[in-house]
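Data availability (excerpt). The following record was deposited with the supplementary files.
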Amino acid sequence: MEQTISGPCSFKAKTIFLYLFPSMRLTRLFKPLCIALIILPACQREVDPGFLRPANPNDSHDSIYLKQYTKLDTTLPSGSDTLLRSMISYDAQKRVIMISEYDFIFNELTVINYFYSGSDTLPYKTVMNYGDFISDYRDTSFFTYTNGIVSRDSTITFDITNNTFFDTRVKIFTPSGNNTYIQSRGYFGYPPITPSYQWNGAMLQTRVNGNLTRQDDTSTYNVKHSIRDHYEADYDNKINPLYRVTIHYPINDFEMQKNNITEEKAWDGPGVFQIHTKYNYIYRNDGYPLSVTETDVINGDKLKSVFTYTN
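Predicted structure:
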């Protein structure tokens, strides 16, 4: 899924867990410096041995809880084909308490910790630690929900390396029929009193069987909430294990719907696809996916993702 709230840059190889928060700061995935990431060396970090163990699609048992999500480049030889690996941890109530993702391309680690109030099943707060080749950062996000969907979030970003406040962002998502109206503001100063920027926008949406199948971003060019103006998606009728481990927003999250995405198209102008991806799954007997091959119809590139479940 290629999407962000602002800016044209993303990497298709990136796993989906870092798309959880539409209010997150423009990290290494999205910020304008992304072009520089292609040519500058990444900082070396210590790798948890757990990230180096290859996912085994046969070690899936019959659990419905995702333990590991691994993205592979099938054009590379075995042993050097891993692009990213995400590891999910749960508490005794089977609530997600941590997602750790290691990026083998840029040698970078991102860790998201989840916090709950009492026996609530939805987190009221997350703390995400991540870095780029310049600095390490910490995002602290707070969530308000309506019927299990985020209706408001706020995120404070702190530059750990330089021990300084970076910014604060607030977003409000208001349903309007089938559509979503978004109010957003951000603060570069501390304490956050007068907004440094603010804008409103609407997502015109269609849902089928609980899945987001169509979305038109009516925001103005410099404040887009998604990369492309128009998205369309198709789904199978099988259970998507990613749906259980993600925080649900009313916009954008096409790969995190109730069922598994089978095709995605996106464009800015009619008749010109900027994104066209097809997904082919191998399933367990009970319908849970073991792996998916993503084919970029535009350039022919293929990536494979492997789902590994808890014992």
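Summary of structural features: Residues 1-16, 19-45 have pLDDT under 50 and may be disordered.
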